[in-house]
Amino acid sequence: MTQPPQGPLPGEGQGPMQPAGDFQPGPGGPGQYPPGYYQGVPQAPPRSVHPGRVGGPPRPARGGVRTRNVILGIVGGLLLFVVGIAIGAAAKSPGAARPGPTVTVTAPGGNPAPAVTVTVTPGSAGGAAPATGAVLFKFSGSGIRNSAPFKVTGSAVKARYTYDCAAFGGQGNFIADLVSGTPGSFSYDDQSIADALGRHGSQTTTVYPADQGSDYHLEVNSECSWSITLTRA
After folding, report:
1. N or C: which end of the chain has fewer CB within 10 A?
2. Domains and CATH numbers, the chain
């Protein structure tokens, strides 16, 4: 039978355990340890979850910043594109038409034809389309006459005409047409305004030019005095 060892066990009968190394008790005396020690044993500092850096929040990934810059650039480009379209449309949109100057020319007629008065009123300046109701052309006189050419830009033209055959001594004819080009040409267009017979009369009618943007002129065949005013319908 084995006998238990005799004598005190290690540490028994010996005073308190002394810390290892060069540990020095803190200013509070025994039992007080300076920072970095736990029960007299030096402890390693806690490791950072981010190698190479100690503490602090993680930096944002560079990829997120780059993506945000690309999105902002695309949005800015779209805004500039929309603004450019709006400016271009405003520049092309015609404003309110201003009637041009009216020119009246009276030419002496040969015997027995009376004098003829031609009044020309351009629709607008600068080539802009005139507004609805704006005067395009005025033409007045007597007998058989053709007007000077003028440009028609609208799809509809309103014609107001009057005629009086008192000087003729009875009933007379009044025939008027809005004409573009010459008969037989590809661009020829003849819009009838009036074909009347009587002592006098007046009427307003609407014609629809087929060759918009081209030059037209008025052709009148009558024994009477007459007046025609064209406006944009």
Report:
1. N
2. 103-232 (2.60.120)
